[in-house]
Amino acid sequence: MLRVWTPGGDEMVAIPVEEAIDVTSLKKQLQKSCGLPRFRQRLLRESVVLDDDTKLSSPADLQLVLLPFADVDTSQVTSIVSAAQCGRASAVEEMLKLPQDPSLGDHESRTALHGACMNGHMDVVQLLLESGCDMNATDNRGRTALHLASGNGYVKILRLLVESAAHVNLRDGFGNTALHVAACEGQLGSVRALLQSGICKDMVDHSGRTALHDASQNGHIATVRVLLDAGASRDLEDEDGLTAATYFGRFCFGHMDLVFKLH
């Protein structure tokens, strides 16, 4: 058997040797018991720390040590955010193994997850979610990773965040939800995915505007159709007393079918 023990001498798991795995796989299993991701675990055999790619194919007694986050400076936080933004997954993983807190923000309060979602790096997003980062952390404009993925049209990342229990109705510093951002940018795939997630269709920003207002003002015809078909309210007025139909009539000439639908 392959047995894993705590420093206090308690057995955590016992695995038949024939189920040969490597250290990384074992750490993922151990997370269920210890509550910490693999980046904060160290497995020792006879006081020697095992590399993550070490194969475990023979009987052994291993000791599990759990680490607190390392003390890092501003430059190190900036480095992991930059690496995530550039899609350098291996660099991000090495920094997570320090172990570095993935939820720390840079001078603009952007976390590594913000950086990865901003530029659509799915592999980095998966690493960061595995590390237990704060999915709902906000930058200095109040934007979450979901805002950034939605506004940039990274639908697969958006869906992963939602499946990982990101809060879909959080608003940024202007009161925009991810649906506002996606509608404003005409990101039809994002709009559809967010509507499927159960996001509030009619939440208003600080100016009283809904996602339908934003899509209408920016002339995103297909987005307007999808929002209307999903039951978005046509009658809500913004702080200027204007409905989405008013904006649509100004900016979307030639689509009378939708004008009538909005009214």
UniProtKB/TrEMBL annotation:
Domain of life: Eukaryota
Gene Ontology biological-process annotations: protein K6-linked ubiquitination
InterPro entries tied to this protein: Ankyrin_rpt, Ankyrin_rpt-contain_sf, Ubiquitin-like_dom, Ubiquitin-like_domsf
Stored Pfam families: Ank (PF00023), Ank_2 (PF12796)
Gene3D superfamilies in alphabetical order: Ankyrin repeat-containing domain (1.25.40.20)
Keywords carried by this UniProt record: ANK repeat, Repeat
Cross-referenced CDD domains: Ubl_ubiquitin_like
Record flagged with keyword Repeat: yes
GO terms for MF: ubiquitin-protein transferase activity
The UniProt record lists the keyword Calcium: no
Official protein name in the record: Serine/threonine-protein phosphatase 6 regulatory ankyrin repeat subunit B
Organism, scientific name: Symbiodinium microadriaticum
